[in-house]
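Our platform keeps sequence and structure together, in a single record for each protein. This encoding replaces a full spatial description with a residue-level series of whole-number codes. We quote a single record here, exactly as it is kept in our systems:
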Amino acid sequence: MNESSKKPENPAVPARPTMPPAAKDAPASGLLDWSRRKIDYLRISITDRCNERCLYCMPQELKDWKERNEILSYEEILRVVGVGVGLGFTKFRITGGEPLVRKNAIEFIERLGAIEGVSSLGLSTNALLVAPVADRLAGAGIDSMNVSLDTLDPEMYRAITLKDLAPVIEGIDAARAAGIPRIKINTVLIRGKNEDQLLPLIEFARKRDIVLRFIELMPVTTTEMISKKNFLSAEEAKTHIAREIPLTLDREVRLGHGPAVYYRTADRQPIGFIGAMTDQHFCDGCNKIRLTADGKVRPCLGDHLEFDLRAVLRSGGSDEDIINLFRRTLGLKPAEHSFRKQYKPGRSMTAIGG
């Protein structure tokens, strides 16, 4: 196994601290990490490529896509999922980059959804390519779809993503028409870009009976957008919204498998806030790890630690070897992310997976 904590991705970043002694006592069975959190959720990136260039996600000059032979094949991923289900993973999400840009992505999703033991199958997408395939996605078992949408202003949308807004709206509406049960909009809060879009987005979600979540800007890549002047906290956004729409905290609501804290409007519309930077308890209930498109198992988005599963798969590794790598990953999953500790990303968000 190749533990990148021994050699950080970014040489300017110091090696991560040694894990507490409890890490050495990680459970020999069962999907618990060293903090005793239950881990049953695997997010799988199938490509590092994207058909958008979001300002906060991908450096505009980025061209260092992985070569085809560096990306896990569908057969390799399906094998990992089969082993993962046997180990205790039940929830899976397909991400990218933009997952639908990869050739034969729909066929792969159909095969993954047919694996016994997959109880929840989600898709994270920008929705640009969803409309023509929405029915197939629903038929493949996609039960939740997260759509990145930061503004309803076409000019601002193009400024942020370099793409047109209309196909995104068509994709969302097609997914609703196809009967995908849970559709969520993920809106990254950007000061000076979309403060005036909070209320229109709430109304957009209300009319379509879909869930809206506001997400704090995180240092997930190296772009000029990742700066204090562009940061808008979830609390500030909530205060802005509450001036026009009273909000009531609802700690009982759970809409999906993530860390969002939900509030309700007077007519019971749920609005989620994901405060990765300001919520000191953000990581307490983390239940996920990630598999990158190039085959690295990453226990935390905001930490450089990762393990080389591709090397195991392509060196004739057994299922037990895969299980051991997962257990090693869980044993070293950090108690919390490093975003608040001058974290410097070594890879862009598209390379890690959303």
